[in-house]
Structure to design on (129 residues):
């Protein structure tokens, strides 16, 4: 069993590449360090994406998220870095990462970063009675 964080993301072939569907993941134990104070910052990451040819493998995602634990970084920077790395690895049709950081100095911070393939647009919403 790995006992070290990793910056390598593994992927696997999308089992249904002909259709749009959404994968949603909640990652409630994200930590990094405040670049100003060195104190830990805690967040819940909400990842949602419409895969194209590849999906991210969960164990490698867990080890990747762990790799930020001892890094000093601003909330905005780390959210965009994570979504950039994930999007580069999977090349999804659409990806959104919402990072909900715990309170710091009386302020909650939420950062939302999206990436989308050129020319892709979502299906229209379905309204049910």
């Amino acid at each position: 069993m790995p006992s070290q964080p990793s910056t390598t993301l593994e992927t696997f072939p999308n089992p249904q590449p002909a259709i749009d569907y959404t994968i949603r993941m909640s990652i409630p134990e994200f930590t990094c360090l405040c670049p100003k104070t060195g104190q830990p910052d805690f967040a819940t990451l909400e990842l949602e994406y419409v895969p194209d040819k590849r999906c991210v493998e969960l164990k490698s995602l867990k080890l990747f998220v762990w790799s930020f634990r001892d890094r000093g970084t601003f909330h905005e920077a780390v959210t965009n870095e994570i979504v950039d790395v994930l999007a580069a690895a999977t090349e999804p049709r659409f990806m959104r990462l919402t990072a909900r950081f715990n309170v710091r100095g009386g302020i909650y911070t939420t950062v939302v970063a999206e990436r989308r393939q050129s020319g892709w647009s979502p299906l229209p919403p379905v309204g049910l009675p």
The mean pLDDT is 95. The chain has one domain: 11-116.
